[in-house]
Design brief:
Blueprint lengths: L17 H5 L2 H4 L6 H4 L6 E5 L4 H11 L8 E7 L13 H18 L8 E7 L8 H11 L5 E5 L6 H17 L2 E5 L3 H4 L12 E5 L2 H11 L20 H7 L3 E5 L1
Parallel strand pairs: 1-2, 1-4, 2-3, 4-5
Antiparallel strand pairs: 6-7
Helix pairs in contact: 4-9, 5-9, 6-7
The structure holds zinc ion.
Length: 257
Amino acid sequence: MSGVNARDNPIRGPGTSLAQWQASRALQAVPTITAQLLLPHDGRLVVVAPHPDDEVLMCGGLLSRFAGQEEQLLLVSVTDGEGSHPCSLTWPASRLRQARPLESAHALERLGLHLPGLDWRRLGLPDTQVPALEGALTEQLQGLLRPGDRVLTTWRHDAHCDHDAVGRACAEAARRCDARLMEIPVWAWHWAEPEDRRLPWLRARKLMLDPQCLALKRHAIAAHTSQLSPDATTGAAPVLSPAALARLLQPFELIFL
Ligand SMILES: [Zn+2]
């Protein structure tokens, strides 16, 4: 989720609160969808995460359903998330580049996934620089996708440069490969307003998470320790604030079909 230059960052202030979202008529009106309808055949789910943690923030609940069926899953980590703590002495890029993929591994294990059985590709693109490499990323994704794949990634209008570029690259690669794209908002929960017409409500569906599944997702997100603490060396607040976590741990995953 991380890696926004301060001057470009649309994430200012506390953002739209969980209580405001809970009162959203537009959100209340979104129909539900089952995992069976989302993934109606034996083809793969391909999850493309701009940064390590986006996979669990986007769809940790859905991922937990693949425990024991890891062969039906492909996870693509586009960057190693080394840009989440600019100027930090505690979390220099060299440390983040090692730590954040390990945090993802721990989170996936907490979801019940058996990592040796998981096809997990790390592309190592530079954090915050994905837009400049969008064409090359599209070609890399094209080489990984198969017809019939369900591709799930960040919404291309999420207002984070990497999230948007990965969303666009996935959309184009899916089109070329005859795969189906699904997008999930991450930052939009912060900057969008409860009845925001910029959100594609007509494409939205809710995948409901039962309490046990939601608890797994919460436990998995907690593995991303680098994102959860303030940084004493820069004075920066946690990348994932308590308010952000509350928004991201609603009892459903919102998916744009
Ligand atoms: Zn991200």
